[in-house]
Design a protein that fits this description.
By secondary structure, the protein is mostly beta strands. It is 5% helix and 39% strand. The protein has 1 helix and 8 strands. The longest helix is centred in the first third of the chain and has 7 residues. It is globular.
């Protein structure tokens, strides 16, 4: 099943494939696991990345990308916190035309493996997926954040 694509920051991703679920870590273990590598938002089930989210140990998140439905690449910075299996994000800077500083959302992390993370935006039934990549794989159009 295909869901419109989006990044964790932008709340636009692909639906999950039918893989068996591995429980998501919780609390500090989840915060640490989010910082391992970068998270790829894909419009083709992980074959390529349209956007990247990078969680930092100081509670900040840097994001960048360009989607096929948008002609302009974007960069964004946010703060995040983790409580249990829920991660909440507040946008602090962005060049995206839709997302604005002060925008906030939370996601419940449903599953995390070495390769992917499945999550649901709080208040939504839609399940999305991001793919873990090494930090060296991050490629931002324009300037990196």
């Amino acid at each position: 099943m295909r869901i419109r694509p989006h990044s964790l920051l932008l709340c636009l991703l692909l639906a999950a494939s039918g893989m068996a679920q591995a429980p998501a870590p919780s609390g500090e273990a989840l915060a640490t696991a989010l910082q391992d590598g970068v998270w790829c938002t894909s419009e083709d089930d992980g074959k390529s990345c349209a956007a990247y989210d990078e969680f930092h140990s100081n509670g900040t998140l840097s994001s960048c990308g360009q989607f096929s439905f948008d002609t302009k690449p974007y960069t964004a910075k946010s703060s995040y916190n983790v409580n249990g299996r829920t991660s909440c994000v507040v946008v602090t800077e962005t060049t995206h035309s839709v997302v604005r500083p002060g925008d906030r959302f939370c996601v419940d992390v449903l599953e995390m493996t070495g390769d992917l993370m499945r999550f649901r935006i709080v208040g939504s039934a839609e399940v999305s997926v991001q793919y873990r990549r090494p930090k060296t794989a991050k490629r931002c159009p324009g300037n990196d954040v």
